[in-house]
Amino acid sequence: MRLPRPVLALALAALLAGAFWRCGSARCFVAGTDRLDQLTLQLDGGCCGFHSQPTNELPDDSCKVIGGSLTYSLFYGEHDCVAWAADCLAEMGEEARPAVPALIEALRNGPNNYDTGDGVIPTRDKIARALGATRDPRAVEPLLEALAHPEPMEAGLGAVGYASTEPQGQPAFLEALGALGPAAAPAVDAILTHFRLPVENYRDERIVRSAASALGSIGDARVIPVLIEALEDPSRAGFAGNALADFGPAAAEALPKLIELIEADPDGEHN
Q1: Are 211 and 195 in contact (CB under 8 A)?
Q2: Are 152 and 164 in contact (CB under 8 A)?
Q3: Mean pLDDT over all residues of the chain?
Q4: Distance, CA of 60 to CA of 63 (rounded, Å)
Q5: Which of 47, 143, 209, 223 has a 20 to 30 Å separation from 37 between CA atoms?
């Protein structure tokens, strides 16, 4: 059905208004501006100056400059642009620490993961992973908040009625805490709670796997007995074994049980 001209005009005006709000003179890509400042601006809903999608020239997921054109602001929504900024900041690692306050604000109040109907844009997951990549202790508290209050992802028109209503993001928050290393020691109790969740489906398995990985990366020796005990549970034994391996000699007491498991199943996941 052909839309009347007034309807088309209003739709175009709305698109342009949104684009100019995002690409106003104070919120757009400016040649010569510090890269970190530009990414922080994009993370906060400013003009798209960077993306992380593979291209013919650069087929990897590295950060690429796109110049903040009006075209990108019209055709790529906030979820994409914020996710790309988070990817770029994650690639910078500890060099992105000045952006930690902006990343925390985006985690708390920015766009959520988004189901388009054709796929998911994991915006909030990427924000969390960027925080982890900074290895900044300031990230611990907001990541714990997010872990304690996960939300269902948002749904686009194509996913209405089909998108999951289950809380999302726990694996990303757990992985981000693990990436912080020993700085995330205050999060160990919360991570253990997720490691102990019953494993009833693939979603539960992802959470338990991510929790185990985080415990191994943080390296707090207090969890070694818990991980050894988990070797008796087939639903989490493999994840516990991998985490214990991260402790190296500190987890030597786990060797007899690990050897027993390997001998009982030489082709299994403990090998």
Answers
A1: yes
A2: yes
A3: 83
A4: 9
A5: 143
Residue pointed to by tokens 């070694």: 224
- The per-residue pLDDT for range 57-80, each reduced to its tens digit, is 767 778 888 765 544 555 557 899
- 208 pLDDT exceeds 80? yes
Choose the most confident range, by mean pLDDT, from 37-41, 130-134, 152-156.
130-134
Q: Is the pTM of this model over 0.85?
A: no
Longest Cα–Cα distance in the chain: 76
What number is the average pLDDT over the span 248-260? 89
Q: How many CB atoms lie within 10 A of CB 54?
A: 12
The three-state DSSP-derived secondary structure of the chain is CCCCHHHHHHHHHHHHHHHHHHCCCCCCCCCCCCHHHHHHHHHCCCCCCEECCCCCCCCCCCCEECCCCHHHHHHCCHHHHHHHHHHHHHHHHHHHHHHHHHHHHHHHHCCCCEECCCCEECHHHHHHHHHHHHCCHHHHHHHHHHHHCCECCEECHHHCCCCCCCCECHHHHHHHHHHCHHHHHHHHHHHHHHHCCCCCCHHHHHHHHHHHHHHHHHCCHHHHHHHHHHCCCCCCHHHHHHHHHHHHHHHHHHHHHHHHHHHHCCCCCCC
Here the tokens at position 63 are 């950060």
Angstrom CA distances, 205 to 191, 193, 224, 242, stand at 14, 14, 20, 14
Is residue 65 a contact partner of residue 31, using CB atoms and an 8 Å limit? no
Question: Could you give the angle at the alpha carbon of 88 between the alpha carbons of 105 and 133, nearest 5°?
Answer: 70
Beta bridge partners, 65, equal: 50
CA dist., res. 219 & res. 256, Å (int) = 21
Q: How far apart are CA 24 and CA 17, in angstroms?
A: 10
pLDDT score of 127 more than 80:
yes
